[in-house]
Structures are given as structure tokens and as C-alpha cells.
Design a protein that fits this description.
Largest sheet: 9 strands, mixed
Oligomer: single chain
Number of strands: 22
Number of helices: 19
Helix content: 25-40%
Distance between the termini: 99 Å
Strand order of the largest sheet: 6-7-8-5-11-12-4-14-13
Structural class: alpha/beta
Strand content: 15-25%
């Protein structure tokens, strides 16, 4: 008889050496939720015993639909993303789960808890860890858990931890130091028997934060909990919670729900309008730590249902138009085969181009990115553009080094020569880069193409083949024309071999409609503030595409795409109409 078919016994009736509920539940958790004794299987599974363990440690812990859902997911899954409104118990539940795990395995367990800043650590998850540890040790002084405040560390060691590096324990990490995003770079090589990463306020973190997870996964046991108030599909939280079929395949219902994620974990959506406090008569609100109906109604009246604030902090669901205002989206690329391999029909007709988005010594976090593309006839889709690869141009600073412009110019010249690309098929964003253009002309050729991102769109070139609109009629700035040319290229199914890195880079930028009805993308500085870095790779790609167009390449005719102007939220429309009626009632009537 296998374990699944064996009759279950009462685990509490076994002869435990220590009858302390904490000892019993910790032993059951350590065994994975079941124990074999006298031919019978005892226990109720890992999630049940984690919950019983937390009850033993903190009898006052509030149990409701949301806390049970969170603890169950944390116990049963390797990766959990949690989207929810303010006051949904995300932080407290994850802190309790982390600390309970540490008490069960005080040796061989590393738990990294992270949020945006040190101040946020104190106010949120690190503060919760300290409170829970203090109250647990009040009841059971033998529990491990020495706080080292100066290092945001909780360790089970009794040694002088101020002067030593301890892997076992809980450590708080601020991802922004001095205004610069550093993530958890100092801990990507962390090794231990069990490693857990908890990211609080993940919607305020750069998506590169998640890059550390691939390294931490190499530990024998690894768990991640990525949580926050949903803001954007492309930030760290949006990526961690992305449904397996992509955000566009997911119905955004206003209810508590869960789904499998693209990266193999589970996402949980805690919807504010489905708060456990709604399970009781109005005004009762038995769960003090949870969002209340009154909170939601007050914010609904103030912000309006269509506002980002209400969606993030009250509903706790991903904004419905997330991605709609992006020039490039992953679903756009996938549905138009832009990430598929190019199958060339005639290799003799292939032509290569280079595009550069220059940066000097990583100023402002920008990369000096060079993109290599190839254009030619494919077997089934006519002439297409394929990404060959990215090259990050090294720029050295210091005494004895050549000027940055000279280094970049020489590197690009040598790379182009090695790949038989003439200067007429090379271009760069020349905005504010006059000295670099001069360096390229001096060391290589004046045939290189200077593409002025800040200039005006062409008054003669059509948006694409078959269009009756010039770029100047459609777009407000040259950079907008360049970015939308790449979008139209994808829509016409002429783009191939885009890497996920490029797609994510391209999905950073948002667009809008000007008062004159033209499309314009947001300034790069605004993108950098919102997303944490600049879309350098896509900028270099659009330069390469522009150089190809100047050499005769054309974007094929395709489906017509026109922007939809964003309407006023309902609450704002009502307020406007009410004000108009008020003004009309007080207006003088002419005789």
C-alpha cells in the first residue's frame, strides 16, 4: 500500500518527546507535513502544519481567507507573486512565514528580505520581523533570534555578530542606496541549504531585480515571495505575476484569485473589494489590519474608479490599460512572430546595419549600446529585419585613456570592418553628440548617419507603404517617428529574432496624444525615472532601422493602427457636468 492510500492517523496522539505545540508542528513541517508511524501516515500536509506552527508561535495572529491563502501558497510553492491593495496583510504574512521557517531550520537557512530603502525596511517588513521575533521569544525564550540592528540582521548565533558575516538568519536589504538602484547584487552568490527571498514593494523596483533569482535558484531549496501594490506590467511585480499566457490573455476580474505564472510560480491577487471584512455586517470590520469597505468608498469618491491610485491601493489589481500606452509590448512581438528565427531565402542578398546609442562611462546608468541587424528576403514573409545581436561598447575612464568619443568611434569602426559593414550603413543618435560625430568622421568616415532624436519628423516620408500620412503629420518628434517605425515593422511581420531583453527594453516607453492630435512618446528622462533605467537597447535598434530606411528599406503596408484618445474617468465627467449645471443656474438671463 503506497503512502497516498494509507489510512491517516492522529499525529497529536503520537508519543512526542516534547508536547510543546511549537515542537510538534516544527517537527511536522520539517518532515514535509506527514510522518510514518506504525504503518500509518500521520499529518495533514505542509500548509496545514505551517499554519498550526504560526498559531503556536503567535496565538493572536489573525486568520481569514487571505492569510490562509497566502500561507498555503508560500508553503506549497517555490515562487509566489502577490498583488494586493494597501492593508491586505501581505507584509505581515510573509514576515510570519519567513520567521517560522527560520525557527524550524535555524541552521542552514538564509532569508533575504528586501524593499526600496532602509526607511521602508524599518516601517514595513523588517519592522514586522522584529515585532514577531520579540513576541515569539516572550513566550519561548529558547527560540533563536538575536537582532543586530546596525546590520538589519536577525541571527541565531550568540557570537559577536557585529564583526562576523553570518549566512544563517534573516537579513534586510535596501535596494536603493543614495538614490541609485542596486537591488540585491551583494547577495546573488549566496549559498546555503535553504534560501528564501522576499521582495516587498516590488512594484517600485526595477525588473532587473529579478535577475538575481536565477542565481539563487541554484541552492538546494529556494523560495521567493514577490509582493506589492500592482502598478505596471513591466516592473518587477508585473513580471513576477505575469500569467502563463501573458497579461493580454488574463481577465482582470475584481475578486480574489490565483493563477500560474509565466516563470513557473503562482500569482495571487487580493482584491480590496473582496476583503474578508466584507464577509461581515457593515461597520463590524473584525480584521483590524485589513482594508475596510469604508476605506474603499472614501478613496473611490476622492480618486475615482479609473485612477491609478484606486486601482493600486484599493482594488489591488493590475491597471486595465497597463501596456495599452506602450509603444512595444511582449504580446505585440509574440503575436507577430518578431521573436522567431529568420529563415533566409537567399543569403547572397543579406545586408547588415549598425545603430549606436552612445553613453560615456555609464553616465546616469545608461549603457553605450551598439545593435547589429540583418535585412534580406525570407522564405515566407518577404523582406524582413533580424536582430543579430547587441554589443555593449566598453568606455574606460582615467589618466592616459583616450577621450570617450575617440574610444567609441574606434570600437565601432573596428567592429564594422570585422563584419564588412561600410560607414554608410552605420548610424547613431547624434542628439548632444556633436563631438562623437566629429570623432567618427575623423577616424572612420563622414558617411555615417547622424540621427537627431530631438529633431522634427520628415515632412516627405510616409509613415509606411500605403499610408497617406507623412511622419510630420503623425508624430510630434523625430524620436517618436523612430520608435513607431519599429512598432509598424513588427505589425507588418517584418521583424525577427528579437531577444526577450530587447522586447523588455522596448516595452519601457509610453506614448500619448498631443493637443494637436499627434502621437508623441514620453521623454527619456521620464522613462528613466519611472522604470529605473534608460531603454538604450531599443534606442540603438531604432537607429539601425532608420539607417536601413535611408538606404532604401521600406516598411510594408499592413493593418491600420490609430491611437485611441483616453477618455475622462467617470467620476471626473460627472464632476464636470455638475459644475457646468451649477454655472448655468447662476448665469444671467438676457432679456
Amino acid at each position: 500500500m503506497n503512502a497516498e492510500n494509507q489510512p491517516e492517523g492522529n499525529y497529536l496522539s503520537l508519543r512526542w518527546q516534547n508536547r510543546d505545540p511549537f515542537f510538534i508542528e516544527a517537527s511536522m513541517v520539517r518532515r514535509g507535513g506527514y510522518i510514518q508511524h506504525a504503518g500509518r501516515r500521520h499529518g495533514h500536509g505542509i500548509a496545514y502544519h505551517y499554519m498550526q506552527l504560526i498559531k503556536a508561535l503567535w496565538p493572536w495572529f489573525e486568520w481569514h481567507r487571505w492569510s490562509k491563502l497566502l500561507i498555503t501558497s508560500y508553503a506549497e510553492n517555490g515562487d509566489t507573486g502577490v498583488m494586493g491593495p494597501a492593508s491586505s496583510g501581505k507584509t505581515f504574512c510573509s514576515a510570519a512565514f519567513a520567521l517560522a521557517t527560520f525557527y524550524v531550520w535555524p541552521k542552514g537557512t538564509s532569508i533575504v528580505i528586501s524593499t526600496t530603502t532602509r526607511e521602508a525596511l524599518q516601517l514595513r517588513i523588517w519592522g514586522a520581523i522584529k515585532e514577531l521575533n520579540h513576541k515569539a521569544r516572550e513566550r519561548r525564550p529558547y527560540l533563536p533570534g538575536r537582532i543586530i540592528e546596525s546590520r538589519y540582521m536577525l541571527t541565531g548565533s550568540d557570537d559577536d555578530a557585529e564583526n562576523k558575516d553570518f549566512r544563517d538568519g534573516v537579513i534586510g536589504v535596501a535596494c536603493r542606496v543614495g538614490g541609485q538602484f542596486i537591488g540585491i547584487s551583494n547577495y546573488v552568490g549566496l549559498k546555503n541549504e535553504r534560501v528564501m527571498l522576499i521582495a516587498d514593494e516590488a512594484s517600485l523596483m526595477d525588473r532587473t531585480f529579478l535577475d538575481a533569482i536565477s542565481n539563487l535558484r541554484k541552492n538546494p531549496v529556494f523560495r521567493s515571495i514577490i509582493m506589492g501594490n500592482p502598478k505596471d506590467r513591466t516592473d518587477a511585480l508585473g513580471v513576477a505575476c505575469e500569467p502563463k499566457g501573458g497579461w493580454d490573455s488574463h481577465s482582470q476580474e475584481e475578486k480574489t484569485s490565483s493563477w500560474k505564472t509565466r516563470w513557473g510560480g503562482i500569482a495571487i491577487q487580493l482584491c480590496g473589494s473582496d476583503s474578508p471584512n466584507y464577509d461581515y455586517p457593515r461597520g463590524l470590520n473584525p480584521y483590524r489590519g485589513l482594508i475596510r469597505p469604508e476605506d474603499i468608498e472614501r478613496d473611490l469618491e476622492y480618486y475615482g474608479r479609473d485612477s491609478l491610485q484606486f486601482s493600486m491601493m484599493n482594488l489591488g489589481i493590475m491597471p486595465r490599460d497597463g501596456g495599452v500606452r506602450r509603444v512595444i509590448t511582449r504580446s505585440l512581438c509574440e503575436s507577430n512572430m518578431a521573436m522567431e528565427e529568420a529563415i533566409w531565402a537567399d543569403n547572397s542578398q543579406l545586408v547588415d546595419y549598425l545603430g549606436l546609442d552612445a553613453a560615456y562611462s555609464g553616465v546616469g546608468g545608461d549603457r553605450c549600446a551598439l545593435t547589429h541587424i540583418r535585412i534580406g528576403p525570407t522564405v515566407s514573409m518577404g523582406v524582413c529585419v533580424a536582430l543579430v545581436g547587441k554589443i555593449l561598447v566598453p568606455v574606460k575612464a582615467g589618466v592616459g585613456e583616450a577621450q570617450a568619443e575617440e574610444q567609441i568611434a574606434e570600437f565601432c569602426r573596428l567592429y564594422a570592418m570585422q563584419h564588412n559593414i561600410p560607414p554608410g550603413r552605420f548610424g547613431l543618435d547624434s542628439t548632444g553628440r556633436g563631438t562623437l560625430v566629429s570623432a567618427l568622421a575623423r577616424t572612420w568616415s563622414n558617411s555615417v548617419h547622424a540621427v537627431e532624436f530631438g529633431g522634427q519628423p520628415s515632412t516627405e516620408r510616409m509613415v509606411r507603404l500605403g499610408s497617406t500620412q507623412t511622419e510630420a503629420e503623425a508624430y510630434g518628434k523625430m524620436v517618436t517617428a523612430l520608435w513607431f517605425a519599429s512598432r509598424l515593422l513588427i505589425e507588418s511581420k517584418q521583424m525577427r529574432q528579437l531577444s526577450l531583453e530587447y522586447v523588455e527594453d522596448g516595452s519601457f516607453r509610453e506614448w500619448g496624444v498631443t493637443k494637436s492630435g499627434k502621437i508623441d512618446i514620453e521623454p527619456k528622462e521620464k522613462t528613466k525615472i519611472r522604470m529605473g533605467r534608460s531603454p538604450d537597447l531599443w534606442d540603438s535598434l531604432v537607429v539601425a532601422i532608420e539607417v536601413a530606411r535611408r538606404n532604401g528599406f521600406q516598411i510594408a503596408a499592413g493593418k491600420s493602427w490609430t491611437p485611441q484618445k483616453r477618455g475622462l474617468p467617470g467620476w471626473m465627467t460627472k464632476m464636470r457636468d455638475k459644475n457646468r449645471e451649477l454655472e448655468k443656474s447662476h448665469a444671467l438671463v438676457s432679456s
